[in-house]
Amino acid sequence: MKVLVMGGAGAVGSALVNALRCAHEVEIVEMKSKPEVQKFDVLHVAIPWQGDFALKVSLIAKEFKVNLIINHSTVPVGITRSLGADAVHSPILGQHDNLSNDIFKFTKWIGTTNERNGRLAASHLAMSGFNARILGTPETTEALKLLCLWRYMHDLAFYENAEKILDGFKVNKALLNQWTSAYNEGYKGTKFARALLEYPRGKIGGTCVAQNSKLLYDLSKNEGVKKDLETFNLI
Questions:
Q1: What pLDDT tens digit does each residue of the chain (235 aa) get?
Q2: Which of 99-103's residues contact partners 24+ apart within 8 Å by CB, and which partners?
Q3: Which structural domains are found in the chain, ordered by start?
C-alpha cells in the first residue's frame, strides 16, 4: 500500500514511519512539504492537537485522495468523527523517548464509526506487526486516551503530595516505593497493584501528560482533574 504520514518528522510520526516501512511504501507530508505522488491508500495522522487540526487533516486527505484516515493523535472527543466517514482513531501508547520499540508493546485500539473501516484499519496495521483491535467508536478511544494520560498525572500528583507528607513526618521518602514493591508482590496476579514512580518535585516531565490533562479538564470541567492540575500549578 501507498501510505502518507502527516507529522512524520515528530517523535510519534517517526516511530510510525519506521514501523510502517516494513510493509508499505511510506511518504511524509507536512502542510509546507508535500510529495509529488498524488494518490495514497492510507493517511496516518500524527500531528499535535491545535484548533485547526481537522481543517489541516481534511485538506491533506482531499488533496491526496486517500481512502482511509487513521488518526493517531490525542484530540478532543468528537474530532475524528468530524474528519468524515473514512476516518478512524487509533491512539498511541508508550514512552515517547523509546517509542520505536514501545509502540509494538501495546494493543493498537481502533475507534471507528463503521465496522468495515475498523477492519480495514486493523488489517492494515497488522501488516506492520501491530496487535490492532476495534474498541467502540472514535469517541471511545479519544476519551480513553485522555483519561489514560490524566491517570498518569493523578499518580504523579499522589507522589508529589506524598513527598510533602513524608518530609513532614521526617520519614525516608525512598521507603514508600520499598513498601509499594512489597505490596505489589503480595497482590501479584490481582487487580490491586500500584504504580511505582519517581517523585516529580513540582514538575511533570515531558509535555503530553500536562497538555492533554488540561485538555481533558477544558472538555469535562471535572474537579478531580482540576485538583491534580493545581498540584503542579498548571491551572
A1: 999 999 988 889 999 999 999 999 999 998 888 888 789 999 999 999 999 999 999 999 999 999 999 999 999 999 999 999 999 999 999 887 788 889 999 999 999 999 999 999 999 999 999 999 999 999 999 999 999 999 999 999 999 999 999 999 999 999 999 999 999 999 999 999 999 999 999 998 777 999 999 999 999 999 999 999 999 999 8
A2: 99/11, 99/12, 99/15, 100/14, 100/15, 100/18, 100/19, 103/15, 103/16, 103/19, 103/130
A3: 2-136 (3.40.50.720), 142-231 (no CATH)
Look at the pTM and tell me if it is higher than 0.90. Answer: yes
